[in-house]
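Notes, p. 3: input format for complexes.
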Amino acid sequence: MARATTTTTGSDDPFEAVSDFFESSTWDLIVTLLWVAAIALWLALAVWTFQDARRRIRQPALVAACTLLGLVPFVGPLVYMFLRPPEYLADARERELEVIALEQRIDGLRCPDCDFPIESRFVACPSCLRKLKDPCVRCQEPLDPTWRICPYCETAVSPAFSPLHAERERERDRDRMAATAQDPDPDPLPQ
Ligand SMILES: [Zn+2]
Ligand SMILES: [Zn+2]
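Output follows (191 residues plus zinc ion):
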């Protein structure tokens, strides 16, 4: 800046204009603005690292460590991006709840008489002794009363050997008869 006053008349140096520019206050201003932008970007990346870590990591100490890493100019946030947990805590929690709900739906079976928790393979209620299923006559696997054959060994379910099955069949017949009695003119079958 001090030289600017001494080189106003000389034009023999072709690089003089360039060197003048780099010594001018305009260049100083540009350098200052670049510094401000770099510092703003550095701080923004550090804040972003902190906020992102808080959404992905449960332990406060680890979040603090990630924030410190995020404070390393520009390289820190990049390294964090490679190492961060892939999933948000909220998403992980939602998935956990879905799994719990699914498990409850699977083993949420209860005895129809006493509401005691039962498992799908129980043949009788351990609490009230109500018969729940009949075992297959051949392989002894517990059979659902609605099954017509044993799905494990393909043995036909005979009502004679399966009182529950026979009862279910009788119920089905009764329902069918009640339905036809209520609706004496059912819709004609399609041709
Ligand atoms: Zn029971
Ligand atoms: Zn069987």
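The pocket of zinc ion (ligand 1) is lined by residues 111, 113-114, 116, 125, 127-128, 130 (CB under 6 Å).
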